[in-house]
Design brief:
With 964 residues, this protein is α+β, with helices and mostly antiparallel strands. The chain has four domains: 52-270 and 495-519, Metalloenzyme, LuxS/M16 peptidase-like (Cytochrome Bc1 Complex, Chain A, domain 1, 2-Layer Sandwich), CATH 3.30.830; 308-486, Metalloenzyme, LuxS/M16 peptidase-like (Cytochrome Bc1 Complex, Chain A, domain 1), CATH 3.30.830; 532-733, 2-Layer Sandwich (Cytochrome Bc1 Complex, Chain A, domain 1), CATH 3.30.830.10; 758-962, Cytochrome Bc1 Complex, Chain A, domain 1 (2-Layer Sandwich). Helix content is 44%, strand content 18%. The protein is built from 39 helices and 24 strands. The strands form four sheets. A seven-stranded mixed β-sheet has the order 1-2-3-7-4-6-5, sandwiched between helices. A six-stranded mixed β-sheet has the order 13-14-18-15-17-16. The chain has a six-stranded mixed β-sheet with strand order 21-22-20-23-19-24, with helices on both faces. Helix 2 crosses helix 11, helix 3 packs antiparallel against helix 4 and helix 32 runs antiparallel to helix 33 (844-856). The longest helix is centred in the first third of the chain and has 20 residues, at 95-114.
Length: 964
């Protein structure tokens, strides 16, 4: 009977499709992707992956910022934001009443765009703000996000780039039908509501970009490469002037033009039945009407006989970038470009890796291609050492291209490149996200899936002569160099803050469409939690060397780890010593030769240190496991001192430390946060001083490396080999003493008590201001984890959370904001209340009280709480900890002093936790607390007197928070 139903279903699907272009399974298509085209032109791409009962989904539109009107740049990106706002059926209490005001807003924006007088524009904007407030009384904020949360979706997001706009969700496999109904409705008739508050979020995003030197460099590079093509003549986020003058009508026109099924794709990977999925896609998306998509045309870029040099100024460390313009996706040249790039920089074995990075001739360097439909771009990047000019880095990078032109590589290297690419592809395809991005790339660039699936085979056919010919043809003088120098950017044109009255979000209301979706049942999925006793095999390699083993039955990849329960807190030389390892050779191999040998084996090694742990790792193809372990152990046991390498490394370490003080992410998230938590003496600042670094000797660092395995450690393995075989190989090559040495005692750091409101302020020249609240709580308590998990989901867990709805949706105060009750990694460490807002400097006086209000009183919303609980339930039911994640989850549980998967406790307790419990938790742990607040921003832009209203202000220098 089941077979007959399946045959009937297949017949139905075939009838509803114009083309059922099902790619025949081949040995070279590891995704076994099913590609279909519906009658209305919609592309459907499906890859089956049974590793967990979830689906990665993408809805792609083959249009991006290159399709923006030249007089309205940023339009595609802004439309992406607005497609989270709902339709005439959801996101609204009464659309007929709401539409009256929405039409007025649309007309007012058209009037606003035609008006040049500043006073008149301000008056019109006040009317827009006023009418928007009236419209919001009839709307319901974040109903899309509530819907997705209710079905257990995670990673709900979207992005716009030059050639595509993509909407992303990760959903439980049993929720596919509901997801398709929601998405079909979302694209049926989107309503562009909440326009001016969402525009403010885009303003914030623009300001963030103007604070980001990397983005400024990228825009300058593209503008230099493309003087005629939109890749360079306009940016994805748009110009300041265009953002100030948006047109709802033009956005609507853009949607009608490009958001048609014959220009869209639904891409899914996961635990799915393709035939049944196609039936549901046809039911939900089959009614979309195809349209005539304007053909994109452009004037080819002229060849230039000399490089274009551009200078960009900013606060971050100096670096530079070279970019070449190349043929686009699907061409033979684009494939040869990929190979040329990998010869230059790939897994520490390319020319740049060996000759510049490993030889320490620059602070850092690399290369990467960006293969787009119309053109490809090859980027080469470099950072100078102390005393080195950007021009010198440029010349060193160009000299590596010359090696490719001269053919200073052999066919064996090309084969090794392809072997390593196969390893990378296996890793990518272990995840549903990786599979979807592979299919997405083919759709966006217009490649056939057959060609995309055979991509590695095509790369393997590239010959040395083809690479040499390509290099000599395309790496000429037609390139762009952008120098990012340290200095004030006088070109920054901040998007000024408009006056916005908080809008109504109507948290308690539910539209009929959403109510129906919430009440529609779905098949159930039983949760599956990790059983540390059953899911991990324990093996004794030697009497004192335990191994934790998990079998890989999916592919031929392995990961081997040696885990030490000591780290920087035990020995401050450890981080520097393990970094030194990559520059050392042995009696048998030089450092360069070691890199090449590992590359030939398709293997990678790494040694990393944390404050309390060291990981020594090896990964690669199972077929070369024993050879890789032998080489790895030979390296660890026989590294030779290299004084010249050490001196260069010390100089680069000091330069790196200086550069960190220019990086706002490092200042806020590492230095300033550590200072607020611990005070002046903390794990971040407790590092080798400059004098201690310069006093280091090669022999003592090598002794540290060679002596690492004299300390107690455990082995962890995830891979295809049987446990006995792994144990035998490790026992053969991994020497350990009969008795391990005791770990050096760990330094203990006292944490600050948050007994008063203190504001730690660091001055940094930036457009935005970033704020972080911290309150120290009691030590880890596993019994509270169920309530904590539900509190976080409700309070600050996503776009439908209380924090996001209030700070961004209602008050338009931030692009990024969150709040959480953060749990520690170790049982002896405390929990923390943490909150964050990234906002404009002139909004500080609004952003701080807005977050303080949420930290004082938790809004009660029964509907939002029910959504949060259901979201958490479905996430727990369908989340699977797999592969090597099982091993690391076990280690994390050990650190917390628990012997089981804590998610199991949360799932079992969900029905016992009500909104009253969450409100009580907030009252007991958040309300009335004092906070250490970290503030990073420009003293010239921030009202320091305003800051003093919220606590004792402590102005800190970079030397204070970095300790040097």
């Amino acid at each position: 009977m089941k077979a007959r139903i399946r045959l009937l279903l297949a017949a139905f699907v075939a009838c509803t499709l114009v083309v059922q272009a099902n790619t025949p399974p081949t040995v070279t298509d590891p995704l076994d992707a099913k590609i279909y085209t519906l009658k209305n032109g919609l592309t459907v791409m499906i890859s089956v992956n049974r590793s967990e009962p979830r689906l990665q989904t993408m809805i792609a539109v083959r249009a991006g910022s290159k399709n923006d009107p030249s007089d309205n740049t940023g339009l595609a990106h802004y439309l992406e934001h607005l497609l989270f706002k709902g339709t005439d059926r959801f996101g609204t209490k009464d659309f007929a009443k709401e539409k009256v005001y929405l039409d007025q807003i649309e007309s007012l924006y058209e009037e606003y765009n035609r008006t040049t007088d500043a006073a008149k524009r301000k008056a019109i904007y006040r009317r827009i703000d006023s009418v928007s407030g009236l419209a919001s009384q009839h709307s319901i904020a974040n109903e899309y996000d509530k819907l997705l949360a209710s079905i257990g979706a995670t990673g709900t997001n979207a992005f716009t780039s030059m050639e595509q706009t993509v909407y992303i969700n990760d959903i439980p496999a049993n929720q596919l039908d509901k997801w398709l109904q929601i998405e079909a409705e979302r694209f049926r008739n989107p309503v562009l509501r909440g326009f001016h508050t969402e525009l403010e979020a885009v303003y914030e995003e623009k300001n963030i970009g103007m604070d980001n030197d990397g983005r400024k460099m990228s825009e300058a590079t593209l503008a230099g490469l493309f003087t005629r093509h939109p890749y360079g003549t306009q940016t994805t986020i748009g110009t300041v002037e265009h953002l100030k003058n948006p047109s709802i009508r033009k956005i609507r026109e853009y949607f009608a033009k490009y958001y048609v099924p014959n220009n869209m794709a639904i891409i899914i990977s996961g635990d799915i039945d393709p035939a049944r999925a196609l039936e549901q896609i046809e039911k939900t998306f089959g009614a979309m009407k195809p349209g005539t998509v304007p053909a994109f045309t452009f004037t080819p870029e002229p060849a230039r006989s000399a490089p274009t040099e551009i200078t960009v100024n900013g606060q971050e460390a100096e670096h530079m970038q070279i970019a070449y313009r190349m043929p686009g996706a699907g061409t033979k040249e684009s494939r040869v470009l990929e190979v040329a790039d990998l010869l230059l920089a790939y897994k520490t074995a390319g020319f740049i890796d060996l000759n510049l990075r490993k030889a320490q001739k620059v602070q850092d360097a690399g290369s990467s291609p960006w293969i787009l439909k119309d053109y490809s771009i090859h980027f080469l990047t470099g950072k100078p050492k102390e005393g080195q000019t950007l021009e010198e880095v440029r010349d060193l990078l160009l000299s590596q291209i010359d090696l490719v032109k001269k053919g200073a590589f052999d066919e064996a290297t090309l084969k090794a490149v392809v072997r390593n690419l196969k390893v990378d592809q296996m890793r990518q395809y272990e995840s549903n996200s990786g599979r979807c991005f592979a299919m997405l790339n083919a759709f966006t660039t217009g490649q056939s899936w057959e060609e995309a699936a055979h991509h590695l085979d095509l790369l393997a056919q590239v010959t040395k002569q083809e690479v040499v010919d390509f290099a000599n043809k395309y790496y000429g003088n037609d390139y762009v160099v952008v120098y990012k120098r340290k200095g004030t950017d006088t070109q920054v044109a901040k998007v000024e803050k408009p006056e916005i009255t908080p809008i109504t979000v109507n948290r308690e209301d539910v539209s009929p469409f959403v109510k129906t979706m919430l009440e529609t049942p779905a098949s159930t999925v039983s949760p599956l939690f990790v059983d540390y006793a059953k899911d991990i095999q324990r093996v004794s390699i030697k009497s004192n060397l335990p191994m934790l083993y998990v079998r890989n039955s999916e592919n031929e990849l392995y990961s081997l780890y040696y885990v030490f329960d000591m780290g920087k807190n035990n020995d401050r030389k450890l981080p520097f010593a393990v970094n030194y390892l990559q520059y050392l050779g042995t009696d048998k191999y030089s450092a360069d030769q070691l890199a090449k040998e590992f590359f030939k084996l398709g293997a990678e090694f790494g040694v990393s240190t944390a404050n309390d742990q060291v990981y020594v790792s090896l990964s690669g193809l199972g077929e070369s496991f024993e050879d890789a372990v032998r080489l790895f152990e030979e390296m660890l046991a026989n590294v030779k001192p290299d004084d010249a390498a050490l001196q260069q490394l010390i100089a680069r370490e000091l330069k790196s430390r200086a550069d960190m003080k220019l990086n706002k992410r490092a200042i806020l998230n590492e230095a300033l946060r550590s200072y607020a938590v611990f005070g002046k003496h903390n794990p971040f600042t407790d590092r080798l001083s400059e004098s201690e670094l310069k006093a280091l000797t090669s022999s003592e660092l090598v002794a540290t490396l060679r002596g690492l395995t004299q300390y107690a450690h455990k082995v962890m393995y995830y891979g295809p080999q049987p446990a006995e075989a792994v144990s035998g190989v490790v026992a053969k090559y991994h020497a350990v003493p009969a008795t391990f040495k005791p770990y050096p005692p760990a330094t203990q750091y006292a944490r600050n008590e948050t007994n008063e409101n203190v504001i730690y302020f660091v001055d940094y020249d930036m457009v935005q201001a970033e704020l972080m609240w911290l309150n120290k709580q009691g030590t880890f308590d596993a019994t509270r984890m169920p309530t904590i998990s539900l509190f976080n989901e409700y309070f600050g867990g996503g776009m439908s959370s209380v924090v996001f709805q209030t700070i961004r949706e209602s008050k338009a105060l931030a692009y990024s904001t969150f709040g959480a009750y953060a749990s520690p990694a170790k049982k002896e460490d405390p929990h923390y209340v943490i909150a964050y807002v990234g906002t404009q400097a002139d909004k500080l006086g609004e952003a701080i009280p807005a977050m303080n209000e949420l930290l004082t009183t938790l809004p009660r919303t029964e509907q939002s709480f029910a959504t949060a609980k259901e979201a958490l339930r479905k996430q727990l039911e369908t989340e699977r900890i797999t592969r090597s994640g099982i091993l690391f989850d076990y280690l994390a549980a050990q650190k917390r002093g628990v012997d089981h998967d804590l998610r199991q406790d949360t799932y079992a307790s969900l029905d016992k936790i009500g909104l009253d419990d969450v409100v009580r938790f907030h009252s007991d742990n958040v309300t009335g607390r004092k906070y250490a607040m970290c503030v990073l921003g420009s003293k010239n832009k921030i009202n320091m007197e305003e800051l003093k209203k919220y606590g004792r202000v402590v102005e800190l220098t970079l030397t204070d928070v970095f300790g040097y």
